[in-house]
Each structure stands twice: as structure tokens, then as C-alpha cells.
Amino acid sequence: MEEPSKFASFSPTIRRAISRRVLLAALMAIVCVLLVNMLALRNPAKFALAQSADHSLSPLTKKVLGSLTNDVRVVALFDTQSDLFEPVRNLLVEYERVSSRVKLELVDLARDPARAEAVQQELRSPANAPGNRVLFAVNERVKAVNDSELSILDFSEFMEKREARRTHFVGEQLFTSAIVAVTEGKQTKIGFVTGHGEHRASDQGGQWGYSKFALMLQQKGFLMQEVSLAGTNSIPANYSLLITAGPRTPYSPAELAKLREYLGS
Questions:
Q1: Which of 13, 190, 191, 194 is close enough to 239 for a disulfide, judged by CB 3.0 to 4.6 Å?
Q2: What one-character DSSP code corresponds to residue 57?
Q3: DSSP assignment, residue 83?
Q4: What is the pLDDT of residue 55?
Q5: Which of 55, 58, 56, 138 is nearest to 103 (CA)?
Q6: Between 205 and 2, the higher pLDDT residue
Q7: Residue 166 neighbours by CB distance under 10 Å
Q8: How does strand 72-78 pair with strand 102-108?
């Protein structure tokens, strides 16, 4: 009997068509959420959840789910009293409905801590990981999506009421990206441009350093690398995202040409 492949796979045509778009969309969602969360940590406030959006899946997500060849284990470790539990559960149930390859388990952290601990041991989830999260697993590959990443915050009334509302639920982007990550088995690369006084991923200094932001991305499984535009080498095309974080001096015409070349690749 033929052994199942180590990782779930997509057909070559489908992979080329969807992988880059899924990863880029999810990367942008993750970056936005992490930056907002950093702002929230520096400026504590009250958060309120807006009405949940429709949970019908996008055509792109349906293509990803329809292309799965092996099972994807999905475990939602959530306190059912969390304001995000219902939208998370409803969305994941829709994933399971669309694809029989999605094997969903809902674990109530408050009522069944023993099961939650057992799942973490099975999937080798860090003991100090945040409470509410969703784990996606294929064989030895595991990807976690934390509840703090699942919504975009509206700060329009922040100064007046010291309240930020969760207005955009971004679960689908992150969940689909996680499925792609555990099935394809590739590490996504992110480049931080340096050389013009930008915020640096390695800088731990106060408000200017981006080390905490970079650490958050690394904890999500992304490979962080600093990129210099000096010299004759082009920007590597295998960067899924290139971050130019607040340059304080202008780029030269040659450096701008490299950026245009990367964006056009």
C-alpha cells in the first residue's frame, strides 16, 4: 500500500495560482494586526467588539480547501466566554463543512484544561503560549494563530472615550494562510531594508526600535532578514514582503530602481 505523502500537497497549477496571493494577503493582515497590537500595548485602553461579519468563505479559500490531499488537524483552544469565540467557531465550522480534509476540534480552556494540556503536548505547542488560539497541524508541522491577531481595531474614538473597537475580523486570511503554511512546508521570508536610518528589526531601543515587532513575526514562523540596497546586487525575489520602515534619508536613483524591480517581479 502506498504511503501517504509527508505533507499535504496542491497540484502545481493550483499552487502557483494561489500560494503567493494567499501568503501576501495574510502577511499584510498579520503585519497590520501586530503593529496595532504594539500601539495598544503602549497605550492601554478598553476594547469593544463590533458585530461579527458574514462567515461565507472566499473563492480563494475554497480553492485552497478543495486542493488539499491530506488531512489538516485544526484545534481551537478557546474560552467560550471570549467575545471572539463565536466568530472563530462559526468560521472554522464553515472550513470543515467545505472540506472533509479539515478535522476540527473545539476545546474549552475553562471547562476542559486537561484536554487543552494534552493537545498542547501532542502538537508541541509552547507551554507559555497565549491562552486563546487556533492550532493548524499536518504531521510535524504546526502553525498557531493567536486571538490577539484576529481583529483590526478602530481608534476613531480613542482620544475621546479611550476605547478602540474591533471592527474587522481577519480570521479567514490568517486561517487560510496557516493551512497553506503547514501543507506546503515553506518558510516565508520578510526583508527589512536598511541603510537610510530606517527602523531596524534588530534595534531594541525605545520607540524607534522594531525588535519587538520582528520578534512577533519570528514567533509566527517568518524568517526575518535585513536587506541593504547598496552595491550591485538585486533584491532577492524570494522575499514575500519587503519592509521599508521610515527611512530618514532619501534613496538614490539606483536604489529606487532596485525597489521598482522587486515590486515588478
A1: 191
A2: P
A3: T
A4: 63
A5: 138
A6: 205
A7: 18
A8: parallel
Can you read off the three cell numbers belonging to residue 56? 461565507
Residues 50-80 pLDDT 10s = 444 456 898 989 999 999 999 999 999 999 9
**Enclosing H/E stretch for 160:** helix 158-161
**Could you tell me which of 137, 183, 239 has the C-alpha nearest to residue 11?**
183
> Can you spell out the DSSP letters for 95-158?
HHHH-TTEEEEEEETTT-HHHHHHHHHHTT--TTS-SSEEEEEETTEEEEEEGGGSEEEE-TTH
In the numeric block, which cell numbers belong to residue 101? 480534509
- Is the Cβ–Cβ distance between 29 and 169 less than 8 Å? no
Question: Minimal CA–CA distance to 46: which of 126, 196, 157?
Answer: 157
Total residue count of the chain as it appears in this document: 265
CA dihedral 20, 25, 27, 33 (to 10 degrees): -170
For residue 82, count other CB atoms closer than 10 A to its CB. Answer: 16
In sequence order, the β-bridge partners of residue 143 are: 136
> Could you report how far apart the first and last alpha carbons of the chain are, in Å?
43
Q: Which domains does the chain have, with CATH numbers?
A: 12-184 (3.40.30.10), 189-264 (no CATH)
Mean pLDDT of the chain: 77
pTM metric for this prediction: 0.56
**Apex 234 CA angle, 231 and 235, nearest 5:** 110
